[in-house]
Description:
Number of helices: 7
CATH topology of the domain at 29-167: NADH Oxidase
Bound molecules: flavin mononucleotide
Radius of gyration: 18 Å
Strand order of the largest sheet: 1-2-4-3
Helix content: 25-40%
CATH architecture of the domain at 29-167: 3-Layer(aba) Sandwich
Structural class: alpha+beta
Number of strands: 4
Order of helices and strands: HHEHHEHEHEH
CATH superfamily of the domain at 29-167: NADH Oxidase
Shape: globular
Amino acid sequence: xxxxxxxxxxxxxxxxxxxxxxxxxxxxxxxxxxxxxxxxxxxxxxxxxxxxxxxxxxxxxxxxxxxxxxxxxxxxxxxxxxxxxxxxxxxxxxxxxxxxxxxxxxxxxxxxxxxxxxxxxxxxxxxxxxxxxxxxxxxxxxxxxxxxxxxxxxxxxxxxxxxxxxxxxxxxxxxxxxxxxxxxxxxxxxxxxxxxxxx
Length: 199
Ligand SMILES: Cc1cc2nc3c(=O)[nH]c(=O)nc-3n(C[C@H](O)[C@H](O)[C@H](O)COP(=O)(O)O)c2cc1C
């Protein structure tokens, strides 16, 4: 059964914003159906086509599907309890890393968070076009990820992602059950625009 984005979660926009932007939201109730390897590859390919400073592409991903029980459990164990309780029902978990230095000269890449965020959003919007939804999480034990993956100092975990198809919220406990059904809100566009100083 495929669950559509419930109406209450769709962004109520004033203008004709792209469908995938209106429909994207961060669910906690995931269907038990797996994602096919090609679907995961498609999401990752979409991510890699994000723009980045000097085309450094500072994003890196660790990916585990639910069927790969040992790897999936390892990633789920990094999550704080408030994320783990629902995210362990996702079809796929990922850790998203950023490379904090430029390959060309070893200097600090101050755009790393920006560029990895762009790649993540590409992945999420591609997902919505395929009825696959994702939830970004920064609530996880980054020190443990660093320790267990033994990565170089310049590769740092930034977020984790829970991905899958939507399910009805009925199996979620509170407060997640209510959150799953509450409208999404944003402050007004005007409040995000800074005026010029007196000229
Ligand atoms: C960097 C980042 C970290 C986040 N961390 C968490 C998290 O640890 N747990 C969680 O439930 N949601 C987390 N979120 C999801 C946000 O709460 C969510 O995107 C925001 O409330 C807007 O809701 P929407 O994505 O449905 O529009 C995170 C989102 C981002 C971008």
